[in-house]
Amino acid sequence: VNLKQLYINTKVEDVFSEIETQLIGLRDIKIRLKEIFYVLLIDKIKKQKNNSFLNLSLHMVFTGKSGTGKFFVAKKTALILKKLGYLTKGHILKVSRTDLIGQYVGHTAPKTKEILQQAFGGILYLDQVHELYKPDNEKDYGSEAVEILLQVMENHRDNLVLIFSGDKTKLEPFFKCNPGISSRIGNYIDFKNYSADELKEILIFLLETQKRYKITFGALLKFLDYINFFSKLKSFANVRTLNLLLQKAIAKQSIRLEKELVTSGFLAYNSLITITEEDFNALTPTDIISICG
Hints:
Shape: globular
Order of helices and strands: HHHEHEHHEHEHHEHEHHHEHH
Helix content: 55-70%
Structural class: alpha/beta
Strand order of the largest sheet: 2-3-4-1-5
Number of strands: 7
Number of helices: 15
Radius of gyration: 23 Å
Distance between the termini: 54 Å
Strand content: 5-15%
């Protein structure tokens, strides 16, 4: 068996290249994804050669705080599984409690089954899944949705993958209450918070590739001061917090430029695309509260 040629034939290298270039940091996650890929590739070869194979469960759990890249990795995972032939479509459907749970008796089952039908051939990404099941509320219909998910995890594992996502501390009680789900999970991947340096790299990447802005050294230091402050809060959401902070700074830049235009009558192009320390200094207590939630 020419393993190298089989790897090339999957054309999965393009996906891994995108992950490497678009996802800063998260080295352990990247390594884990490649490990999963090679296990599945070898298992596929065994099936083709009629040798014993593992019949692996592809259902996964992604734990970690908001803004750590979980959904981005899930989308790339869907593409990898399609290229390997485990999924027919390779799309991803992101849902939360409100998408699955009905408001009255008999409403939850058809609602959940409709979502599952849309997800077939790809990945059903269950965001903040701990909110799905509320054992303390007797009138809650979450348990009905969980039962349907359990059946699908077992009976349709050949063309549908479920990814359960959420904060690790909140997911643990959910799985204790639903051991049938945890026993059907094939991979657990934990997404750590980004470091301040990684968030700085992400900021520069976003500014250069998406926002088309430049940032001064003083503004960069001010950004790091804010990130160090926000990272100590429970509501810290990594890249999501970064984006909110950046949006506020850009808004303050616009106000500053408007004043400059009124005063001088013109603006240099470099001023239009540069975020300065002054823009971060202009953030108000109300801005800070809106960023940290």
